[in-house]
Amino acid sequence: MYRMSNRDGTSNNPSRTLRDLPPLSVPKKRKPKMPEKPSRLLACPLEIQLHVLEFVPREGLAALSRANKHLASIAQPVLHREVDVNCPRVSFQCHAASLVLVLRTLLSRPDLAQAVQHLRFDGYDFVERRLNELPTTPIFHLTDEDKLKAVKFIKALDLYQGLDWAQGFLKGRVDCLVSLLVALTPKVRSIYLGEFFSVEICYLRKLLSPESFGNPGGSNVHKFEDLRHVTVNNHCATYHHTRFSFNNVYQSFFHLRRLESLSISGSFPEDSRPFTISTKLEHLRSLELKC
């Protein structure tokens, strides 16, 4: 650094002694900035938590539901949104049909029954059948309290032959169990009935009859106002019964006034009589009938 001086030897720069200078400071080592910790899921608003759960697979939802009560309260409704059940032959490897286990859950948790939007009864594995007999499955996984809840629920529907339905349920008849599961889920949006589950449709037909839809003086069945899509695979109806005819069960589904798509495949008898659809299907966009 150059110092500027006058002709007389004086300097323009103010002189400072070493005492006036500040002491040299050794810069401190700064800790490297760590990236901020990601926010915990529980710290996020409930809307964000629900949005995140939409992308979690079912195995992850099941694990989250066992983590704590809060996660269970928001994960279990998402987990039960789609219910896919079968009714296999009970053995040492399979102690209970998933149909029975789901019924046990929904009977004890009406809030989860409200969350069910899609029901799929697939016939990929089914109980042993005998000619002209209604298929049954053991219900010993249901407690006496579960059975009492189911019987009270069926009686409260105030349907014709409701007592027979309750008795059939206690015997483990598959049709009675399926009908009960449908009746327990008022916000269901789609129903798929596989080739074995769609053979005997006795009490399900009564649920779908117009006089059952909560009319004054009628029964207390919900009106299936959210049901939009129904698929019925009824190809096996003529193979398992010679005394009773289940070939005309498809007529009951035409009473669902808010349906958008209806697909029915089955063995329709040649002597089927034409029937009049009293319900106006204003929202129906797709109708598929296969023989």
From TrEMBL:
Annotated stretches, region: Disordered: 1-38
Superkingdom of the organism of origin: Eukaryota
Comp. bias (Polar residues): 7-16
UniProt lineage: Eukaryota, Fungi, Dikarya, Ascomycota, Pezizomycotina
Name recorded for this polypeptide: F-box domain-containing protein
